[in-house]
Amino acid sequence: MVLVAATLFGANGSVAKVALSSGLTSLRLTEARCAGAFVGLALIAAVRPRTSRRATPRELARLALFGVVGVALVQLFYFLAIHRLAIGIALLIQYLGPLLVAIYARAFGREPVRRRIWLALGCSLAGLALMVELWNGAALDGLGVAFALVSAVVFAAYLLLAEREAGRRDPVSLMAWGFFFATVFWSVAQPWWSFPAGRVGDVVTLQGRLAGWHLPVWALVLWVVVVGSIVPFTLVVGALRHVSATRVGIAAMLEPVVATVVAWAWLGESLAPVQLAGAAVVLVAIALAQTAR
Questions:
Q1: Phi, psi (5° rounding) for residue 102?
Q2: Structural contact between residues 80 and 35, judged by C-beta atoms closer than 8 angstroms
């Protein structure tokens, strides 16, 4: 479930990049993504048993924390980071999140973390470093690094909060509540009356090897909402019922691997041998983590 979600997240990056070529900003796309995902999940939840979508006042407080921190802020600080850093560098720093989850589990959760998990974490981070060619004089903006580190912290918080709530309610209702509170957050931060609605009707080229094809921006946004949000987020939360947050975080590191390959195959972005080696190391790390019961 996590590997399918990571694949969809990775492919979603290229779709979002094409959508952003219309002039729609990253934060506005995120706002539309959250609102659309909430509407879709709410419709699904509406036809399910009513008890699955009920929430007590105490649960609402926890769900609000999950929605704002786990859904809205992780995207906010990621976009703030990539505004000042290369996307690969920002992703590398953000994926310190699974390491933070393992440290939390060991230090505060009193859970035994096997040595092969630490080895898998080290291998996965090394593989990501190879993929972004960290040694090639990457320009590290101090504020950008700070944003990326905060993104890693809130990513870890998302995994831990989702793991806790996944045992209390089904994935659809949990993500519906999460995207609801994320939408409320974005509606306050960026009021809807200033949303550039005229942009979604524009027709844009799919770029790269699909430059001869054109789609309206609303179709790309719909893909981001359904295939890039509703399905993968629900899969990740569902997976947390079966595997730990640490292992989910490691398996999710497939995302930058898929994102790099899709960008190469579709948008014609370069893919050097060292990047292929890094992708292989990440895949080995994911397989290693799955053997740690």
A1: -65, -40
A2: no
Cα distances (angstroms) measured from residue 150 to each of 90, 93, 96, 135, 285: 11, 9, 10, 23, 24
Q: Which residues contact 256 (CB under 8 A, 6 or more apart)?
A: 10, 88, 91, 92, 95, 128, 131, 282
Tens digit of pLDDT for each residue in 202-211?
A: 888 888 888 8
Length of the chain in terms of residues written: 293
Q: Which amino acid is at 94?
A: Q
- The whole-model pTM stands at 0.81
- Per residue in 114-152, pLDDT (tens digit) is 788 888 888 888 887 887 776 776 556 778 878 888 988
